Amino acid sequence: MSVSSAPRKKPAPAQAPPATVADLLKRLAVPAARVRLCPPVGTATELDLIAVNGKKEGLVELVDGVLVEKAIGFDESNWTALLLFYVCDHVVLKRDLGKVYGPDCGYRLAPGLVRLPSGSFLSWDRHRELKRGAQLSTVPPDLAADVLRLSNTRREIERKLTEYFAAGVRLAWIVDPKRREVRVHASPADFIVLTATDVLDGGDVLPGFRLPLAEFFDQAEREGPAS
User: Is residue 227 over pLDDT 60?
Assistant: First the structure.
């Protein structure tokens, strides 16, 4: 799948505050258990996010002035993310393409919006735009990948994809360990679904990356040493 290098879009104008808790949850598209009430809803800032994530007691994203906890799920999701980006990192290093980041790397996609993909790739061209010592990236990744957890919702992922591509992400992978599938997005609506019989490749964004998904999912699901 080829991907375009369309210019980054301007962020949408700020929305009016939600009138009810139901409105808030509908907007955030996450279960109530993942919404933090401290700081009060609508008042959270990037500094709050940095402080919480710095405690290493879980990760949060910043959405509409609210700290939203990252979904926590079955063990294979974490191993899948780790394995996927270990392989990516190997290809990136071998071909000197840029840098790969894990789930604790925050991206400011728009004012008041910070997302933490399960993993991400920044080409050297984009990496040069980063401010040295910054605690959040103001530059969107070329590739963003999210590994689905049990508490992720369909609308949450749809919203994230819209935000990713509006900010300038070129390619997104949505990895579903339970279904053993990967959705490869060139835009929120333009995607293909790969199964365990297919090979995932990086296209123009991550040239040289090829991963047989049967081998990948089998390795991610292992619970002990090979016999």
Answer: yes
